């Protein structure tokens, strides 16, 4: 292997298998009780990370997740937090950072929908979605970024959506919040890159979760017909990417928006 070999990084550094694992990394994940967030919690725990899951209610499989974390040499704690309450969220993140002695990864995953055509959408529905999906990411990232800058390392991930890239009828509030995450993350990435902190965005497409299972068969068939790979995605597809981006193997990736959508948005 020579210095010009593509397997070698800067200063001749190679990527080891250990770089792709999260062993010992301190991670906060919002909205970790179900769906994509639950899968991210599971993946991080299985890779030996020290995970704090923030949500209003505990996951139905919380005991299972905690056992998996212990088996992998990590740990998992759940804290009841309503991410739409700014002061509560900031206090929870600050308390975890103090308890852990720092923070390596923040995953802004919490999100809600209040769908409806704009003519029928109330201002309350607009505000509620923007606060839960976008403002919560700002509040949590502000708290985490302060600690990460001091330690000169860290990774912030935000889970957006292809709706934030393509738009989606009946989801002006949701699409606006998810598009906002993209602009927010790109700007934040520029602010903190020189301090060793990376910021990236994951944009899932049609993923099999509780939120999508309620769709009728005709709607599902129509949606699948638009996806080049011809199927819906699994929450694990998103979790696997989140784990990679949070790992040391992704040390040269920041300010990016990566779609996990089977080609839907290409």
Task: Write up what this structure looks like.
The protein is of the alpha/beta class. It has one domain: Rossmann fold. The chain is 43% helix and 16% strand. The chain contains nine helices and nine strands. It has helices at 35-46, 62-71, 86-100, 123-151, 163-166, 172-192, 210-213, 217-224, 235-246, and strands spanning 26-30, 50-55, 75-80, 105-108, 154-159, 197-204, 207-208, 233-234, 257-260. The protein has a seven-stranded parallel sheet with strand order 3-2-1-4-5-6-9, sandwiched between helices. A two-stranded parallel sheet has the order 7-8. Strand 1, helix 1 (35-46) and strand 2 form a beta-alpha-beta unit. Helix 1 runs parallel beside helix 2 and helix 3 packs parallel to helix 4. The longest helix has 29 residues, at 123-151.
Secondary structure topology:
Elements: E1 26-30, H1 35-46, E2 50-55, H2 62-71, E3 75-80, H3 86-100, E4 105-108, H4 123-151, E5 154-159, H5 163-166, H6 172-192, E6 197-204, E7 207-208, H7 210-213, H8 217-224, E8 233-234, H9 235-246, E9 257-260
Parallel strand pairs: 1-2, 1-4, 2-3, 4-5, 5-6, 6-9, 7-8
Helix pairs in contact: 1-2, 1-9, 3-4, 4-6
Could you give a quick summary of the protein structure above?
The protein is an alpha/beta fold.
Share of β-strand residues = 15-25%
Order of strands across the main sheet: 3-2-1-4-5-6-9
- Which radius of gyration do the C-alpha atoms yield? 18 Å
Structural class determined from secondary elements: alpha/beta
* Main beta-sheet annotation: 7 strands, parallel
CATH homology-level superfamily: NAD(P)-binding Rossmann-like Domain
Q: Order of SSEs, N→C?
A: EHEHEHEHEHHEEHHEHE
Count of β-strands: 9
> Domains counted in the coordinates: how many?
1
Number of helices: 9
Terminal residue distance: 36 Å
Q: Class in CATH?
A: Alpha Beta
Remind me, CATH topology?
Rossmann fold
Q: Name the shape in a single word.
A: globular
How confident overall, as mean pLDDT?
Answer: 92
CATH architecture: 3-Layer(aba) Sandwich
Helix content: 40-55%
Low-confidence segments: none
């Amino acid at each position: 292997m020579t210095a010009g070999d593509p397997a070698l990084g800067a200063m001749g550094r190679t990527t080891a298998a250990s770089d792709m694992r999260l062993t010992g990394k301190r991670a906060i994940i919002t909205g970790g009780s179900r769906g994509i967030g639950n899968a991210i919690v599971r993946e991080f725990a299985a890779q030996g990370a020290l995970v704090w899951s923030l949500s209003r209610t505990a996951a139905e499989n919380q005991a299972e997740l905690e056992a998996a974390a212990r088996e992998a040499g990590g740990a998992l704690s759940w804290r009841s937090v309503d991410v739409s309450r700014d002061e509560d969220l900031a206090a929870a993140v600050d308390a975890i950072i103090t308890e852990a002695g720092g923070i390596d990864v923040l995953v802004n995953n919490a999100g809600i929908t209040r769908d409806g055509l704009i003519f029928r959408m109330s201002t309350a529905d607009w505000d509620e979605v923007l606060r839960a999906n976008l403002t919560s990411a700002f509040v949590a990232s502000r708290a985490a970024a302060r600690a990460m800058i001091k330690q000169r390392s860290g990774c912030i991930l935000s889970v957006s959506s292809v709706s934030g890239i393509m738009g989606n009828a009946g989801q002006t509030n949701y699409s606006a919040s998810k598009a906002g995450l993209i602009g927010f993350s790109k700007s934040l990435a520029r602010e903190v890159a020189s301090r060793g902190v990376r910021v990236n965005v994951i944009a899932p497409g049609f993923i099999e979760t509780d939120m999508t299972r309620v769709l009728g068969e005709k709607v599902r068939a129509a949606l699948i017909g638009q996806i080049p790979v011809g199927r819906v995605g699994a929450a694990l597809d998103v979790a696997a990417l989140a784990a990679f981006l949070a790992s040391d193997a992704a040390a040269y990736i920041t300010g990016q928006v990566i779609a996990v959508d089977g080609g839907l948005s290409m």
